[in-house]
Amino acid sequence: MSSSKSNKIVKLESSDNKTFEVEEAVAVQSETLKNMVDDGCANDTIPLPNVNGKILEMVLGWCKKHVDETVTGDELNKYEADFLDLDQADLYGLLMAANFLNVKGLLDRVLQRVADMIKGKKPEEIRRIFNIKNDFTPEEEEEIRLENAWAFD
Amino acid sequence: MTYEEVLKAVFPLLEGVDLASCMAVCKQWRDIARDDYFWKCICAKRWPSICKQRSPPTVTYYKLYQTFYKRQHCRTLPPPKLSFDDLDFFIDIWTEDRLIFSEVVPGQVLQNGFKIPPPGICDVLRFHLEGPEFRMRLPVKPRFTVPLSQTVSVSVLVARKDSNTVACIINKTMFEYIDQTAYRAMAFDYLDFSPVHPFISGARAWFSLLFIEDGNEDVIDVFGIEMDFCDTANSKEEVLWLLDMLDWQ
Predict the structure, then answer these.
(1) ipTM score here?
(2) What pTM was computed for the model?
(3) CB contact, 8 Å: A67 with chain B?
């Protein structure tokens, strides 16, 4: 009895009602989807109410690239570097999706990317990159500055 | 994954200085970044053995990291335990065996030094006296002359009132260096430190006779004396610390 899993298609629907069809081998890069497939729940379109179409497309693109055997190691590295060149809103969406869909390696890559965006930056720059409001009073800000003067020498 | 969970997943990936920057971003970031758990992660990367104990060796891993992550170059002395008000200096100067100067000089007097250098001193000496370095000095009144052909020697003891003890600064040594161009005759002796400071050697006390050139090449006309530890201690705080370390008995 042969299993024809390699030809099976998985259908996904994003929160904004976009549908995507991918090969099962691509879909099961996500542990969440793999569990559904293994449990036999993947026969109909799988709704993903917490992932929008733009992000889902990105995630599936990632998965496709990682399944493609013609892609070399160098090409993959470059792909991943370019892939993560996103603004903070998209990065956040990608983080949520990677976490929910449990895509191997993607969550770690995105977290590292966020860390790299913070490294070497001053607080004002970090606020700008991540669109954060400075809610310190001048006194609080001074207190923190003094406490961390050791880091800014 | 909540926003907070994202931060908690990213912070362990940062270097210490970056986590410190994160503390200054906003209140939420500060409250999360302050958690010593992240500083433990950072210490674990830097000094893996440190985290093999249950609790941090210092009060927090945060304190451990900021203290040791790089070499501290600028180290200021804490305030000295000794003050010049506590000290009296016993100064004796001989030519051959004749005593030519013998005084108990309170520390305050030596600390204050020369108010007005006498007229007739050379420029080199004037610059030296007006310089910014801290030196203990005393005008000699009345002035005395010293024949160059004779050996001149000095001894200095110091007493401290806070513990009623005495230490030796110079143990009867001869003036061997006479710097004619700078009008200073100099003697030195190596300091004896308390056994509590076992590894210090080579720190010297210097004693100078300051003189005026009065045309007579056979004698020096001494108007003041100076004592310093220029090899080792050059500010008032450093001098007081150095004196505090002597072998007080």
Answers:
(1) 0.85
(2) 0.66
(3) no
